Amino acid sequence: MRFAERNRRIGASGVREFFGKGRPMPGAIDLSVGQADFEVPRAIQAATIEAIREGCGRYSPTRGYPALVEATRAHLVATHGLGDDEQVMMTCGASGAIATALLALVDPGDEVLVPDPWFVIYQELVSIVGGTPVPYDLYPDFRLRADDLAALITDRTKLVILNTPANPTGTVFTTEELSAVAELCRSRGVPVLSDELYDLFVYDAPHAGIKPLLGDGSLLVGGFSKTFGMAGWRLGWAAGHAELIDRMCTLQQFPYACPPTLVQRGALAAFDVDMSEQVSRYRSKRDLVVAGLTEAGYEVMPPGGSFFVFPRVPWGDDMSFCERAREEKLILFPGSMFSRRNTHFRLSFAASHETLEQGLEVLARLAGEDPAADPQEIDGRGDQTRS
Questions:
Q1: Do 259 and 292 share a domain, yes or no?
Q2: pTM above threshold 0.85
Q3: Residue 132: which H helix or E strand, with range?
């Protein structure tokens, strides 16, 4: 069988592959996958069950049920600065929104600026649609620098992807950082796709996004997965320029037809659910993990949001360190799954306090095993050369 050429540009998800090796391990201390450890709120469960009983097996409009689209739009106008003329569509997860946006915007040969470290799907989805991912470096402090972006923009640059709060680093960009990028992208005529899936889980300051600063020059992507513990329910949204949303709806009808209808019906109850207790719990988890890592001697930037922390490995490289952790039944993700560098690892604190404390005990022991070895970088790992 002859496969499409695009298969040569992508591989299996390293995250899922590494997770699969550790998941069957009895007694594993799993600090790997970023999905909430709380249940879907009862109000959403009840609304979904009621939708099933009432009959929700028919297709919805491709854009989503009008009531949910309007409720989501009203929420984004009130909280994210969505403009009066901008539109909203429901998608099959935030990943579906990103994939459909790239199909609508990126031609073969176009360049897309992606953060390094990145969320794992960015590079692969850009490659699938025929584009070239061009990483912009956020090291060493994972901050957004407009000057670094400016140096990478060419006449082939079609899009910039932002992620705040970020996966895997937990970084939350400031209004000042976003303002500088908005000014740059407006002057260069380059749109921004802003992935803000973890927007509720921000711990030290109010969430800031680029939408109020760049208007319809930005596409806002989010969803219900992280906020309400609905990762497997696959419901996201995209909000932006009316013409772009129309193009994305046209594309969505072919691979997806519409987002899951029972989930859409259930999600209508989400806007009345108070998640402040869960956010407070996750702030405590963040504080526990950062304090434990710091005490053990790890170099770590405290995350301002999301479910993740991205410490530097204390010795060796990321893969050898995470393999050693797995021998102790601790499941982490090597940083090179998210980056061209192999100097860090990702830890998810979406776990019970007991599990986090067990993981921190293992990490404290591992920190002292090889103090003489310096982390080494593999130059160009995952790098996209430009011609």
A1: no
A2: yes
A3: strand 132-137
